[in-house]
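Re: duplicated header lines in exported structure tokens

Our pipeline writes sequence and tokens for each protein into one text file. With two proteins the header for the second block appears twice in some exports. Here is an export where it did not happen, for reference. First protein block:
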Amino acid sequence: MTFKAYKSFNYWLPRISVMDRYIAMELIPPFIFGVGSFSSLGVAIGTGFDLVRQVAESGLGLGILFKVLLLRIPQFVAYALPMSTLLGTLMTYSRLSGDSELIALRSVGVSIYRIVVPAVLLSFLVTGTTFLFNEFVVPAANYEATATLDRALIQEQVALKGENIIYPEYGEKKLLNGTKKKYLKRLFYAAEFDGRQMNKLTILDWSKEGLNLIVTSESGQWNIKKNIWDLFNGTSYSIAPDSSYSKIARFERLEAELSRAPLDLVEKERNSDEMNLLQAIDYLKVIESSRDEKKILKIRVRIHEKIAFPFICVVFGLIGSTLGNRPQRTGKATSFGISLLVVVTYYALFIVCRVIGQVGIVPPLLAAWLPNVFGLVAGGWLLFRAAK
């Protein structure tokens, strides 16, 4: 690169002041310390004790134990990132305040609003990292950890089994006044899913005027090549408009062009922590036809939380840098304690908002973002008080 080209490239680089670079470099060590501390604590309390209990009670092998522990680490790292933002900003600004460096900055006209800018920018960076980590690493690791544990405890088939699978498929009718109305097009029922096929199926069909077809079969299996259901050993009853049977036919194998959704409904019955945003939206589409409002509300809240949760890093960054601006110096132990207190308060609010969102008291969007809104208001008020 020639000197002229380098000068041109350097011109477009963000111009970071000495103060910002200095504060940013001071923020990194306590942030990394927080990630390590909170992650270790989370893994030990959240997973380690339970796995040790299973080693004692179920004879779980040490190899499986360490594999599951490793697979659980990403989830707790994702939890630790916001908490470390709080701890890092609190410790850094407290150290700067204790050494009178903040007083020196304010004495030359730098406002407290300007001083906390590096912390807020770092928080946005951690927010993006948390979101990407939660999307591309955590769900896959959680799912693999659950599958590994299930296989070790010989519960793989149990995880894939299901009973009383009901899938109502809805269609739309155009009325004479031009409006559209939803109606029950088809009802799929299977007494059980054994991990390979549906058993004891009954299908009711209203796709034409009124109930026009009833199909029962001993079993049914999804045909991947043809994207249809293969039904085995059953009977189809065609219903005439006067509700009498117009035709009854026995079959050994029948190809039925039905939706794959009943199978998706069983296979995707997994914890929302094991799904990323797109998988959760896909799962919502499947369960929306079931009209199970409780389950639909629950997954809608979780979808909004997947977007809202990473932004808690910004809230914690603002609160931590503002609390650290107090005149007295705060030690590591005190900072850790204050961080835990703030985190516990936030998560208590987070759970309350989740519950009221899942029971329909507030819309899912509001339930997911309320903790962040409260946190931002609290952080803004603290900052305003500190600036006076």
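Second protein block, exported in the same file:
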Amino acid sequence: MTKTKLTGIFLGLLGFLIPLVLDFPGLSLAGHYAMSIFLMAAVFWMFEAIPIYSTSILVIFSQVILLSTEGVIDYSGIAGYEPASYTRFIATLADPIIILFLGGFVLADAAVKYDFDKNLTRILLRPFGIRTVNIMFGLMAVTAALSAFMSNTATTAMMVTVIIPIIAKMDPADPARIGIALSVPFAANIGGISTPIGTPPNAVVIGALNQQGVAVAFSSWMLYALPLALVMLFIAWRVLLWLYPPQTDTVSMTLDTRMKQSVQAWILYITFGVTVLLWVTEGIHGIRSSVVALLPVTLLTLTSVISKQDIRKLPWEVLWLIAGGIALGISMKETGLAEWMVGSISWDQLSYIMVLVVFGVVALVMSNFLSNTVTASLLIPLALSLATSGVLDGVFGMLMIGLVIALSASFAMVLPISTPPNAIAVSTGIIKTKDMIVSGFIIGLIGLLFVLVLAAVYWPFII
């Protein structure tokens, strides 16, 4: 075992023990246990002391033992936490986002089996030529454009089928393989900030603002956020090229495969097209993307387009990984740990600019470990209460702090659990957690700085 892993195990266990021996005023007993699990998991994920999916399984097991009604802790008579059944935690394996993942994996698996991924790559990337740097930019541009109007997760799941044949054509020692694998989830996260429907935190903030009588039109949101998305897409591209420079200028894209014409291949083409169409038009028909994801799973297995052996080869460990992240978010919210962390800051003692800075930093940090939707849901009520209490300036202040929270939360890209697109990228087997930490930290930090710059010099002139 390497020194890094040993250090990670030591620090993870130390993090688990600290909340058990120290009393944090205002935090419930369950909150202390949730903090133990949180610190242990955060360290294990960052150091990869054990396989990252094993950490997720350990999270769920620890929650069942320490936080459920079937666990070893008796919470009767203890205020501040109503323990849930153990099914609340293990049910995260059937969470809608897991089903969406499963649908994407099945589509990707079938696309590889019938060479549909190679043909899709040839069509989408033809305008960008064969230079490696242009291919990466083309992938990011297409991904960002799609994720502005459809689920970031669904977009990434689809685009992974495009990058697999590209990566397969590259030298295994070429660092650009990592850059290309990271380019898709990062572009999906960045593209999602462009429109109100691009990612759930945008909708959470807009909904909260509407309840306060502040309407945000679709075009207005794009005016606020689209310039940031365009700038950050370019910066992310350059950062990935800097960290993972291509060893060769071009990638052999002689994808001369022809579309297969078997009945099963045509079932795949039609199913793929219908699924993507339903994902893109979710805002029109209202069918959730996770429900749509059941369509390829059902049709492709019923028609034997994918076999039992194909199903066994799916990256199930990624589903465990995401389930652990979802379960961690549940315990942090329901034990009051997340609220305690947010409430530990004396917001009313800070200046206007410092309030924006702190909310941006807190949103970025929290959403690296929690769902960015949960993060926005936790922070926006507190932020709006500051505005209504006079700490921020009325409607203008509410809009500013809402934009800072929504956009900062979307730049959380440090860990595989930070956002579902990151986890999908990990499923390619190309990326290690340390790659994601370095590039995700740099891009996330730059993104946060640009959000604050816009809050100082751009938004005040157009709001």
